[in-house]
Specification:
single chain, 81 residues, three-stranded antiparallel beta sheet, 7 strands
Length: 81
């Protein structure tokens, strides 16, 4: 689902990803960077770097954050106004 006004409604630490509840389209490298396995590829992100990619699988990534949307568009997010 596309972002509204270029804003995501979900941000989670990469190690807490929930691919059945969310779709992720950006990875944020955190304050000091991180190494994460995305879609079967190991990627090293610098601090504050943002990678735009459709996340299909994720592992590792301590220090990384995933940004995206709720999959349940019927009930939506309780924090979106």
């Amino acid at each position: 689902m596309p972002r509204i006004s270029d804003i995501h409604n979900v941000i989670v630490p990469a190690e807490s990803a929930n691919l059945s509840a969310h779709t992720y389209s950006e990875i944020y490298g955190g304050a000091s960077g991180c190494v994460i396995n995305i879609n079967g590829n190991v990627v090293s992100l610098g601090g504050t770097f943002i990678l735009n990619i459709w996340v299909r699988s994720v592992s590792g990534g301590t220090g990384c954050y995933l940004l995206g949307e709720n999959k349940d568009v019927y009930t939506g997010s309780p924090t979106v106004y």
